[in-house]
Amino acid sequence: MTTTAQHAIDTLLWCSTVEKDGETFAPYGVYEASPELIERISKEWEQFSNEAIELGFDPEEHREQMVNKPVDGDELAHCAHDWILTRQGTGCGFEEPLKWFEPWGEKLTRLAIYGLKDEELYLYIDDNNQISAEA
Predict the structure, then answer these.
(1) What is the CA radius of gyration of the chain?
(2) Which of 5, 72, 75, 80 has the greatest count of CB atoms below 10 A from its CB?
(3) How many whole angstroms separate alpha carbon 38 and alpha carbon 44?
(4) In a structure prediction context, what are the per-residue pLDDT tens digits for the chain, which is 135 residues long?
């Protein structure tokens, strides 16, 4: 798994919730992603990023907001982070103003939501006590 895909998975785990024993909470730092979830996010991230690059997207050139690389990762990691936030319908991500130069914020939003038919993922705790997802 690439470090960029790991950023996407980490973002998914902290921006989503699961329910267990009647409690709803964010699973980040509590549960690990299942191998199937890791494989799915890795594959879908690769598809999304390849399509974005084919459209002419360059994360370093088209990022408007400064990135604290030692702490937050590089521009591509931020792109993976925003991809998850956008596809999960959080209201944040590519559509946030002043993060990506236009028209890239809008193009990436459309690509994340419609271009690859990415669906919002609903997380749950599987039988192995790991986080899995269904669309």
Answers:
(1) 15
(2) 80
(3) 10
(4) 788 899 999 999 999 989 888 888 888 888 999 999 999 999 999 999 999 999 999 988 888 776 655 556 688 888 999 999 998 888 888 988 778 888 999 999 999 987 656 578 889 999 999 999 987
Do the Cβ atoms of 67 and 78 come closer than 8 Å? yes
The verdict on whether omega for the bond into residue 103 sits within 30 degrees of 0, i.e. cis, is: yes
Q: What is the pTM of this model?
A: 0.86
Residue type, 90: T
Residue 24 · residue 17 · CB < 8 Å? yes
* Residue 128 phi, psi (nearest 5): -95, 10
